[in-house]
Design brief:
CATH class of the largest domain in chain A: Mainly Alpha
Structural class of chain A: alpha+beta
Order of helices and strands of chain A: EEHEEEEEHHHHHHHH
Helix content of chain A: 25-40%
Number of domains of chain A: 2
Helix content of chain B: 25-40%
Oligomer: heterodimer
Structural class of chain B: alpha/beta
CATH superfamily of the domain at 429-559 in chain B: Fumarate reductase/succinate dehydrogenase flavoprotein-like, C-terminal domain
Largest interface: A-B, 60 and 61 residues
CATH topology of the largest domain in chain A: Fumarate Reductase Iron-sulfur Protein, Chain B, domain 2
Radius of gyration of chain B: 23 Å
Distance between the termini of chain A: 68 Å
Radius of gyration of chain A: 21 Å
Number of strands of chain B: 22
Largest sheet of chain B: 5 strands, parallel
CATH architecture of the domain at 429-559 in chain B: Up-down Bundle
């Protein structure tokens, strides 16, 4: 039997609000080769079996963050998950957990985007600088303090993995907290106190119950759990120093 | 129909669109900006750019060097006054990105580091490991959140431009989540929708790179300039076409044929030295490297793989530590998609379509021939790439000309008012019907994916690395046929919520028209220049007849009309384009000539 003759069963969770009252599984038989991704399997379905199956995708190389979905119950990027790993048993694909399904595999990203926008995810300079003065100096070691946390592709897999977010949608959540830490930890930035005002709130860092599954599913090694832990530590120190210094310890 | 009244509408929220939006907001915070994108901004294809962004930085570098590299690299089809502006403003825009938080890679002393890139005489490419586009895009997106005057329309698909009283006065967009239409009135419109690489079969581009803005401007009479110049990137993944950045070679990687031989030395790029010299061998320009692959394949010196002929990109001598510091994404791609650890095994690569050098005709200030319409980035032909773009010039283009587009559009928007809202609304209704017709009037039997696949294969056959009249003519004929069959689509999906099949159908319409502009421009250019290489009696560059820009005009159902426009020469008269040792000789001769002229 040659490679091209292999066929795999893909079950796709369908939900079309104009047609279905609740999600239902639909099964497709897809011929595949060993180098085909789950995304390519879905593209085959859409192109040749059923044009109504809907999902987001673009770059195909795990950098645009569009194609997150639950694959056999685990949040993954479909472009870098391979069909061969599920052969011969087949696989089940569903929309990302913990977010409302808009249609089929497409979830409503609105809550994530609103949270991202709310944490001032931009440099608020410690010392303003003109273009004529050139770049801020930042050593490779200083860059290393935040680089990992700047690698988040906003794919939302960590939100689908986070049990706390599943229970409580007011929780800021792993990806956005990692992004907040990214700016707080940047040597050019001077606004961590301003951001930490949000971090102190229930929905901020302390909302995390330290399960750590966010970091396990992260496809880019961002490690949001680590970002949250570091900030719990800072926040605890700050909480303490608030009482012993007159202006609080946030500076 | 919902109507939103903006001052400036920007279609596309990748690097160019975001930079333009910020420029408008900074130029005049009272202007209302509508930033429209068919995907969330951070999904835009800028995200996939890897290697870096050029800007003269080192003391031993100069604007003149960057200018010369760019103009020679473009085989003298660049607008030289625009290139002068570009090189002069690159560095400050890179610094601006730094101030906004872009995590540029650094030297030990804290200054930004630069790396070597193909066709560049001096190291001047700023980089953030090998995820430069990703970091620039996220930096711009996150910075844009600071500006309250930027109203984003995320996941709104632009289906037409509103042109009234001879100027562009808005866009019609579909809210993808609901299928409802919104008319966005605007006194100025900037198109920043990226390239059209998806017209080709094997390409590095994301699924969204479908030439939307090019097709929209083209349909409204703005010519597409120099569309025949499509860039093949020499080092891409077999099967998928995914990109392995030129920075692999900038950091010292080799290209080897099946005998382990650095074959580029046989194609005027040598001599082969242990570490690549700037503008030689592996650091030659992309057109020459892709052409060398084609010849190696013909000579039977490539390796046969499951997806056809490949050569090897050898990074082993760089060592695991350097690879993980400088090229982490490349390591990840090689390991996860090919099962190859580049520290121990060479990566199989082949050329794939990467970049659309041509685009919407724009003057040096990004204005098109239609008043009120501007363009920036890959969709635009502002004139800096000529017949072959140098790697790391396009990310810089986004921010240099994104700013220009924003400033110019803001200025224009302040100088005019919406002339006839009732007429514009009527137009929008008609455009809405046309967009809906793609689904409601499709009672045929043609499958979307079949047409798309046939188009992409035909483009590869006719407009590949080397071109023949008969093949190009066959592609022209095929595209006529496909445009005819496109009227006869069979669409499965008739719903409104996230009807992606509907949007793919509209995109296919864009792709087919842009494809026609490409192949007809190619067929008409009877010479070889940069990425346009012919093997049918027109193997040489012909400056007498073709030191001209191609201009493809839309003619409705017929093929495009091809006209020609002048090329702006300011200080570099067309000369010999050479690399490696031959390039150094040519440069010395040129210096001597210029020296003699100054006496």
């Amino acid at each position: 039997m040659t490679d091209t003759e292999k066929v795999i069963e893909i079950q796709v969770l369908r939900y079309r609000p104009e047609q279905e009252t609740e999600p239902v599984l639909q099964s497709f038989k897809v011929p595949f080769t060993d180098d085909m991704s789950v995304l390519q399997g879905l593209q085959y379905i859409k192109d040749y079996l059923d044009g109504t199956v809907s999902f987001r995708w673009s770059c195909r190389m795990a950098i645009c963050g569009s194609c997150g979905m639950m694959i056999d119950g685990k949040p993954k990027l479909s472009c870098k998950t391979f069909l061969r790993e599920y052969y011969p048993a087949g696989l089940r694909i569903e929309a990302l957990a913990h977010m409302p399904i808009e249609r089929d595999l497409i979830v409503d990203a609105g809550d994530f985007i609103t949270k991202l926008e709310s944490i001032k995810p931009y440099i608020i300079p410690k010392e303003p600088r003109t273009l004529e003065q050139g770049e801020y100096l930042q050593t490779p070691q200083q860059r290393d303090m935040y680089e990992q946390f700047s690698s988040c592709i906003n794919c939302m897999l960590c939100y689908a993995a986070c049990p706390q977010y599943g229970l409580d949608k007011t929780f800021t959540g792993p990806g956005v907290l990692a992004l907040m830490h990214r700016y707080n930890a940047d040597s050019r930035d001077g606004a961590s106190a301003e951001r930490m005002d949000l971090g102190y709130a229930h929905e901020g860092f302390w909302g995390c119950t330290a399960v750590g599954y966010c970091s396990v599913v992260c496809p880019k090694g961002v490690d949001p759990a680590n970002a949250i832990n570091q900030n719990k530590m800072n926040s605890a120190i700050n909480y303490f120093t608030r009482f012993v210094t007159p202006k609080g310890g946030t500076k | 129909m919902e109507v939103y009244k903006a001052d400036v509408a920007i279609v596309g929220a990748g690097g160019g669109g975001l930079r333009a939006a910020i420029a408008v907001a900074e130029a005049d915070p009272t202007l209302k900006i509508a930033l429209i994108s068919k995907v969330y901004p951070m999904r835009s294809h800028t995200v996939a750019a890897e290697g870096g962004a050029a800007g003269v930085t080192r003391p031993d570098d100069s604007l003149e060097y960057h200018f010369n590299d760019t103009v020679h690299g473009g085989d003298w089809l660049c607008e030289q006054d625009v290139v002068e502006y570009f090189v002069a403003h690159s560095h400050e825009e890179m610094v601006q990105m730094e101030h906004w938080g872009c995590p540029w890679s650094r030297k030990d002393d804290g200054h930004v580091n630069v790396r070597a890139f193909g066709g560049m005489k001096i190291e001047r490419t700023w980089f953030a490991a090998d995820k430069t586009g990703f970091h620039m895009l996220h930096t711009l997106f996150q910075t844009s959140i600071k500006y309250p005057s930027i109203k984003r329309f995320d996941e709104y698909f632009c289906s037409d431009l509103m042109v009234e009283d001879g100027r562009c006065q808005g866009v019609l967009a579909i809210q993808i989540a609901t299928g409802e239409f919104t008319l966005i009135e605007a006194k100025a419109v900037i198109i920043a929708t990226g390239g059209a690489g998806r017209v080709f079969r094997e390409n590095t581009n994301g699924g969204i790179v479908t030439g939307d803005g090019m097709a929209l401007a083209y349909r409204h009479g703005v010519p597409l300039r120099d569309m025949e110049f499509m860039q093949y990137h020499p080092t891409c993944m077999p099967g998928t076409g995914l990109l392995f950045t030129e920075a692999c070679r900038g950091e010292g990687g080799f290209l080897l044929n099946k005998d382990g031989y650095r074959y580029l030395q046989d194609y005027g790029l040598g001599p082969a030295e242990p570490s690549p010299r700037n503008k030689a061998m592996e650091l030659g320009p992309r057109d020459r490297l892709s052409q060398a692959f084609w010849h190696e394949k013909r000579k039977g010196r490539t390796v046969e793989g499951p997806h056809g002929a490949v050569v090897n990109l050898d990074l082993r001598h760089l060592g695991a530590a350097k690879l993980h510091e400088r090229l982490p994404l490349i390591c990840e791609l090689a390991e996860e998609f090919l099962g190859v650890d580049p520290a121990h095994t060479p990566i199989p690569v082949l050329p794939a379509v990467h970049y659309t050098m041509g685009g919407i005709l724009a003057d040096g200030k990004t204005a098109s021939s239609l008043p009120g319409l501007y363009s920036v980035g890959e969709c635009s032909s502002v004139g800096i790439h000529g017949a072959n773009r140098l790697g790391s010039n396009s990310l810089t283009e986004l921010i240099v000309f994104g700013k220009v587009a924003g400033v110019e559009a803001a200025k224009f928007a302040r100088s005019v008012s919406i002339s006839n809202p009732a007429a514009i609304e009527k137009q929008a209704e008609a455009a809405r019907t046309r967009a809906l017709d793609v689904v409601t009037q499709s009672r045929g039997k043609e499958r979307l994916a079949v047409l798309r696949t046939e188009m992409a294969q035909s483009m590869e056959n006719g407009c590949g690395i080397y071109r023949l009249e008969s093949d190009m003519q066959a592609t022209c004929d095929k595209l006529r046929e496909l445009r005819e069959r496109y009227r006869n689509l069979k669409i499965d999906d008739h719903s409104k919520v996230y009807n992606t099949e509907w949007l793919l159908s509209i995109e296919l319409g864009y792709l087919l028209e842009v494809a026609e502009a490409i192949v007809h421009s190619a067929l008409n250019r009877k010479e070889s220049r940069g990425s346009h290489q012919r093997l049918d009696g027109f193997e040489e560059r012909d400056d007498v007849n073709y030191l001209k820009h191609s201009l493809a005009y839309y003619t409705g159902d017929g093929p495009p009309r091809i006209e020609y426009g002048d090329v702006k020469i300011t200080k570099s008269t067309p000369g010999t384009r050479a690399y490696g040792a031959a390039g150094e000789e040519a440069e010395a001769a040129e210096r001597e000539r210029e020296g003699a002229g100054n006496d």
